[in-house]
Amino acid sequence: MEECAAAMHTDVQSWLEERGLTANEEAYDYLKVVMACQNAMAEPRVAPAGDFLGYMAMARDIKMNLHSGSVATIAEPGCMAIPQAMEEALNAAGGEIRRSTPVEEIIIEGGKIRGVIIRCRDGGYESIECDTVICNIPPKHIFNVLHPRHFPAGWVDLLQNKFWSAGLLTGYMGLKNNIWEQFGVDERSFIWMPGIIKHEGFIGAVDMVMWSFAACAKRAPEGKRDFCFSTALTDQEMRNPKKVTRVINYCMDWFKKNFKGWEENVEFVIWTPSDEAYGNWRPIGEKRPPLRSPYADGLFFVGDQYGERLWGGGVDGASLCAVMVVDEIMATDLESELFPPYHRGTPKPATNW
Ligand SMILES: Cc1cc2nc3c(=O)[nH]c(=O)nc-3n(C[C@H](O)[C@H](O)[C@H](O)COP(=O)(O)OP(=O)(O)OC[C@H]3O[C@@H](n4cnc5c(N)ncnc54)[C@H](O)[C@@H]3O)c2cc1C
Questions:
Q1: Ligand 1 mutation pick, 219, 271, 278, max ligand atoms within 8 A of CB
Q2: Which of 116, 117, 160, 161 is closest to 142 using CA atoms?
Q3: Residue 306's pLDDT is what?
Q4: Ligand 1: which residues within 6 Å by Cβ?
Q5: Which of 54, 179, 256, 326 could form a disulfide with 311 if both were Cys (CB 3.0 to 4.6 A apart)?
Q6: Radius of gyration of the chain (CA)
Q7: Is the per-residue pLDDT at 352 higher than 70?
Q8: Residue 288 per-residue DSSP state
Q9: Residue with CA closest to ligand 1 atom 38
């Protein structure tokens, strides 16, 4: 994990090239598609190497096995279990959760947090005074509730305009049968097809990842299967209907051509083009925003892309960050108490930039 911190300032492509790992096309494609699957970034030149290496470093410890199924999915009720457990703990401690309550503004005066203004169900507004606010909105969107005048213009520009989002184009399909049987493939496998669409103006080549949830999460009805397809496109690509349609059509044709009896086997198909899936990523060479704002006393940030020792992203990143921000505010070390070493942040922030 020390090496991950040291590699945060460089991109995956340069890291691989420095080690001669791009020479063998098949090996390179494999590494690239593993990266695209974990970080939701198809282009190694835009992916920070340290984040990718974190997943590689912990693979053995978490017993990741991409042939016999290692999808970390919770069938009932899903990742929602995490906030629900937090809600229970907060209520038990005398706290109050207000669901479906948009924050309109976080009030800062004289460089200090004064409170928040929230929108009420009756359409009105309410001010709540406090000296500490933890803002859980992804970096690109914090200025919807924080006035930019309280922050350096360069920092506002960096977050709003230079941070970008890793999107996911996901196809979710209900099937009657196990489609992998006809190829003798263990249905708990991840199936990767790197570079299915090249040289058509996508930021990287389009990589396709398929797997069957039914094999590991048992979400499909008895005897049936659910089949998941995913590809990493950027936020801008995801807002381009031509590009999204091109990938969907390619995949649907590929399924029909390669799986015997596809039409009869399929019960439903849902495609979800999400322009913001795996967090708002910093450009190579920039750090993640810190947990404690240096610009307003009492302002903290939490989420899958905050904190100078955070790596990776997704639900695991967001969960780790939640514990890190509690430690930052309370001067505790819950991170070490709760997480095994491979689920913790990097030992120290990257220093070599
Ligand atoms: C299609 C898709 C597939 C994914 N697959 C995986 C996966 O397989 N594994 C994995 O680990 N991760 C996956 N992710 C990523 C994962 O969901 C995110 O990384 C994670 O949810 C980020 O958590 P967060 O708390 O940082 O931000 P969010 O979950 O985005 O939470 C921010 C919250 O702030 C709320 N908010 C915004 N503005 C306001 C406001 N003004 N007032 C009040 N509330 C506000 C939003 O409604 C939102 O609920 C996937 C994401 C998508 C979209």
A1: 278
A2: 160
A3: 97
A4: 102-103, 136-138, 144-145, 168, 170, 272, 274, 277-279, 303-304, 313-316, 318
A5: 54
A6: 22
A7: no
A8: P
A9: 137
Report the C-alpha gap between 216 and 70 in whole angstroms. 7
**Cα–Cα distance, 222 to 204 (Å, whole number):** 39
pLDDT, tens only, 112-126: 999 999 999 899 999
Reported as a pLDDT band with limits 50, 70 and 90, residue 214 is low
The closest alpha carbon to 325, from 288, 276, 279, 352, belongs to: 288
Beta bridge partners of 133: 299
Residue nearest to atom 27 of ligand 1 (CA): 303
Tell me the C-alpha distance between 116 and 144, whole Å.
13
Which pTM value belongs to this model?
A: 0.92
* Nearest-atom index, ligand 1, CA of 118: 42
pLDDT in tens, 17-55: 999 999 998 889 888 888 888 888 888 999 999 999 998
Cα of 112 vs centre of ligand 1, distance in Å, is: 27
Q: Is the Cβ–Cβ distance between 91 and 41 less than 8 Å? A: no
Q: Are 134 and 300 in contact (CB under 8 A)?
A: yes
Separation of alpha carbons 165 and 148, rounded Å: 21
What's 240's DSSP letter?
A: -
In the predicted structure, residue 248 carries a pLDDT above the cut 80: yes
Write down the mean pLDDT value for the chain: 90
For the CA of 73, the closest atom of ligand 1 is 8
**Got the DSSP string for 57-69?**
HHTTTTT--TTT-
